[in-house]
TrEMBL record:
Keywords recorded for this protein, A-Z: Glycosyltransferase, Transferase
GO biological process: anthocyanin-containing compound biosynthetic process
Protein name, as recorded: Glycosyltransferase
Pathway(s) the chain acts in: Pigment biosynthesis; anthocyanin biosynthesis
KW Glycosyltransferase (keyword) present: yes
Gene3D superfamilies attached to this UniProt entry: Glycogen Phosphorylase B
Top enzyme class: transferase
PANTHER family per record: GLYCOSYLTRANSFERASE
Pfam family, any one: UDPGT
Signal peptide: none
Length: 429
């Protein structure tokens, strides 16, 4: 029985690496002849602490597939100025060297070397197709956003205000174009979506596309590390709590924080708010937790909200969305967060910030009618302050639980789970 090996090269940020590893785990579960090596690009402009902690946690687990999934952290190359494309490009020799060591070490050990079957490359790392070509194996792109971002397939007119931030950026547009030009060289594109959610996009794509989602780390259990939060949620009535969380890179300045606080206080809904301190002005650095959030909240806010809501730092989003008490999710609309909300049947109020999140918000609110809007065209670098009236209106619309919208959310939740079952649309890719 011939054994085979795949090489995964994700972008080393949490939103990309977690879903890439989940795809790897899925493949390993399906085929016991397969092993996978995940190469971690060591980029100087990325805060790698979260990624390294995630890897350590995975390797410490008792997973039955952990012996067939290995991580290799590549050496760091210092660059004087930030240039995303060149930073990925100069990692090529390290990728090639790592692959040579893997194949040579297996030969030295006098054990049959698994056949190198191909590379699975992040949507932003397509220059690594060259390395796959050097080894004479096919490449597959792992696309961490939705399929509709790949191809114009919307039924409703698309407003310019929902254009992805990156397409309007002189810094990021060349990066996207450089990567997108090479998509056609890949054997196929693996997309974290499912047919029932984005049928128009999946059917419109002429190239080989494999919708494998929703790919989520739903096995993550943060109850033990966040017992107080989870106990509080367990004590709340069903669908009574609005959860506010803006992703691993999401944060606001003090003026915006105060507007959110005023809106929550006036709405009187129970809430759980993941409040983060903005990161230093360096790209891809993660926000941090406040030692004392009272420094940015309105005076006396926490005292007045005792028993009604909780302000917390980082929290495991999947763990918090699962309890029945959570009835709404104010989200930045990162694609992973969108899929998590659908999986648990929790409707979203959209507040996009960067990347393709404005597009995701439009798709969820207008195209799929699975969400309500707070500010669909918000961009975190615009300097705009969303006032408390807009926020309160969005929260009330979210938590009033329109029966038609809730029915659609629940139906899509059921579809997302069926897609991964035996003979489901994503299972059969």
């Amino acid at each position: 029985m011939e054994k085979a090996q795949l090489v995964f090269i994700p972008l080393p940020v949490m939103g990309h690496i977690v879903s890439a590893v989940e795809v790897a785990k899925l493949l390993l579960t399906r085929d016991h002849r397969l092993s996978i090596t995940v190469l971690i690009l060591n980029l100087s402009f990325v805060n790698s602490n979260q990624v390294h902690n995630y890897i350590e946690s995975f390797e410490a687990s008792s997973s039955t597939i952990s012996n067939r999934l290995q991580f290799i952290v590549l050496p760091e190359e210092e660059t004087e100025l930030f240039n995303f494309t060149s930073s990925i490009e100069i990692q090529k020799p390290h990728v090639k060297e790592a692959m040579l060591k893997i194949t040579q070490s297996k030969l030295i050990a006098d054990s049959p070397a698994p056949r190198l079957a191909g590379f699975v490359i992040d949507m932003f790392c397509t220059t690594m197709i060259d390395v796959a070509n050097d080894f004479g194996v096919p490449s597959y792109i792992f696309f961490t956003s939705g399929a509709a971002v790949l191809v114009p397939s919307l039924v409703n007119p698309f407003p310019a205000k929902a254009m992805p931030s990156s397409l309007l950026s002189r810094q990021w547009l060349p990066v996207l174009l450089d990567n997108a030009r090479r998509f056609g060289e890949a054997r196929g594109i693996i997309v974290n979506t499912f047919v029932e959610l984005e049928s128009y996009a999946v059917e419109s794509l002429k190239m080989s596309i494999y919708p494998v989602g929703p790919i989520l780390n739903v096995g993550l259990d943060g109850r033990n590390t966040h017992q107080e939060i989870m106990q509080w949620l367990d004590d709340q009535p069903p669908s009574s709590v609005v959860f506010l969380c803006f992703g691993s890179q999401g944060s606001f300045g003090e003026d915006q924080v105060k507007e959110i606080a005023y809106a929550l206080e006036r709405s009187r809904y129970r809430f759980l708010w993941s409040l983060r301190r903005p990161s230093p002005p360096r790209l891809l650095q993660s926000p941090s937790d406040y030692e004392d959030p009272q420094e940015v909240l309105p005076e006396g806010f926490l005292n007045r909200m005792t028993g009604i809501g909780k302000v917390i730092g980082w929290a495991p989003q999947v763990t918090i969305l699962a309890p029945p008490a959570v009835g709404g999710f104010v989200s930045h609309c990162g694609w992973n967060s969108v899929l998590e909300s659908i999986w648990f049947g929790v409707p979203i109020a959209t507040w996009p910030m960067y990347a393709e999140q404005q597009f995701n918000a439009f798709e969820m609110v207008t195209e799929l009618e699975l969400a309500v809007e707070i500010k669909m065209d918000y961009r975190n670098d615009s300097g705009v302050i969303v006032n408390c009236n807009e926020i309160e209106r969005g929260i009330r619309s979210l938590m009033e639980h329109d029966s038609k919208k809730m029915k659609k959310v629940k139906e899509m939740s059921e579809n997302s789970r069926r897609a991964l079952m035996d003979s489901g649309s994503s299972y059969c890719f």
